[in-house]
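Workshop exercise sheet. Pairs work together: one partner reads the sequence aloud, the other fills in the structure field after running the prediction. Swap roles for the next sheet.
Pair: D.N. / O.F.
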Amino acid sequence: MADILREWFDSLYVVTLKDMGDGTHAPVLYIGGAAAAALGLTDAQLRATAVPVSGPLTDAEIRATALPVSGPLTDAQLRAVAVPVSGTVAATGPLTDVQLRAVAVPVSGPLTDVQLRAVAVPVSGPLTDTELRATPVPASIDQTTPGTTNKVVADVPTATPTTYNVTCTVADTEYSQALPANCRKFEFQCRTENIVRYAFATGKVATPTAPYHTLKAGDYYYSPDLNQAAAPSTLYVASPTAGVVAEILCWV
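Structure field:
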């Protein structure tokens, strides 16, 4: 009999009046077990009242249920809260040119000379004319000692002539004359109308041995502009005729 009553009560509900203890009565609805299960709360009913949660959620509790996220986060949202990162991220292989160029890397301020020289930058292939002309390259000339350090002679008037007379006493014999320091130009001739062989290296004119030059009878030799500095050249002369004189005029 008790089992029958329990089964009957589980499937039904009972309405009765409850004494509230203050002289009043309130209707009370008693629902049996099976009937209560059939009257499950809807999603709207569950959400109608906020359920307070105290204390921080553990990592396991946070990970227990996936939280859907819709839409991409803005830059401001990403930067709003710092996200700690621990551990290391393994990277294999060098980045390709395409990967390096995929995202612009901002650089602020000019690089110093030390920073520019810290890493060698490989350059392949010759520069084109356009690339060479894109940026002016400063050039300077060492003016410490004009005519010596820079091999540039100032365009000033020649002022001091120096004359030498070299007598070829013996025929086919070499004679020499060192030109003066800082000689800018020289000229010479044979005093008489005779042939004179000349060279700027020894051992060429006594017994004619190439290379040497021949100043023909009645001819005159003029040198180009020179920059002899402190180590001038030496003129070597000889003649097939004994006793001829080579007249040399130098300008410094």
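Discussion prompt: The helical segments are 2-10, 33-38, 43-47, 59-64, 75-80, 97-102, 113-118, 129-134. What would you look at next?
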